[in-house]
User: Fold this.
Amino acid sequence: MQKALARARRWHFVWIPVLVFASLGLMAVRALPTTYIERREAAQRVWSNQSLTSYRIVVRALFAGRACAQEIEVHGTRQYVLRDTCNSSWLSFLTVDRLFELGARLESGPECFPSKQDCVCHRVRIGSIEYDPAYGFPVTINWRREMQPNWQHAAYWKHIWEKQELPKCTTPVRPLRLEVVSLIPLEKDETSSLYHAAPPAGSN
Assistant:
């Protein structure tokens, strides 16, 4: 009887913080991404109102411990790479549309690790975005992807109970920083300084 009462007390102390963290986590998930979404959508409206279909953009990127840059001309659905020292298929061509797409990843919720059923840890993106007040495009994107303990999930506390140790939720932080060095509007009939033509947008 005493052993049963002792086990009940132990579970009582485990589930109280679980419920507290779960409620706080749900509040954070509902509040923070909305801010990112609203800011992005407002900035996209500003950008769309510019009706800029032709422009030249230079973006500096810092990721995977190195710095690189891209210079791209956009003419409607065509993209022309003038300079690219990144050579990264993951970054792709850093047009304004692509910058909005990468920035929108901050709106994603935490991802369970190692699985949805055994969600002792989760991957999260933490960062910030600054938008140009006049044109609306993202000027700087900063985020890092890291692993964190998932105190909100019962699997976290089950792991502690069964293994008598904290889950290993530490991985190297993966930061990304994108900076728009310049964006120059072009005339629609202006000839591009062509080095490499990318496929039309949406063809991949």
Residues 116 and 164 are 22 Å apart (CA to CA). Helices lie at 2-50, 96-103, 154-163. The first helix runs from residue 2 to 50.
